[in-house]
Amino acid sequence: MTHDGRRLRGSRSREAILERAVSLASAEGLDGLSLGRLAAATGTSKSGFFAHWNGKEQLQLDAVEWARRQWSEQVVGPALRAPAGVRRLFALHESRLRFYADGVLPGGCFFFTVQAEFDDRPGAVRDRVAEVMREWLEYVQRQVEQAVALSELAADVDAAQLSYEIDALGQVVVVHSRLLAGSDALVRARRAVLQRLRALCPDPSLLPED
User: Whole-prediction pTM value?
Assistant: First the structure.
């Protein structure tokens, strides 16, 4: 096998391990990951596994990066097809709810699980999780600010507050849809954000009625 072929196979092996790691961590947390367990789950030899990672913390950090990319591709990416402004902002919320409804991850949301796991544990993993979550909130806020700039939301909208509310309504779905209300949580979270945006939009016809 050529050097490039070995590199490609190694990259695919690494991706498969990280995909499995993120899936498991969404339900059990990053601390629940063990190198041996992941090696067995992905059919990777331990020697092959340690060719990618020399310790658990680096595996955890790489899992955070993989989950961030997954979120960007499957939540943010589809929303970009909507026109900039209030429609894209609502599409972003709907895309997030669809990610949960489709059961992409067994635990619902990787970041919801690991933020609770690492919120009071100083270190590199906590810092990176916090950074990624901050990036997400800032991205939502930029969508609000763009909608205001396009006059699709009222000029006096508090962008930081509205983005916080939208994110909170997305997060609560993770628990409520699994423990309490099932699909009803998705319906209510969608409706709550839609009604909030329609109330703040000078032209509510840009958004669905329900």
Answer: 0.88
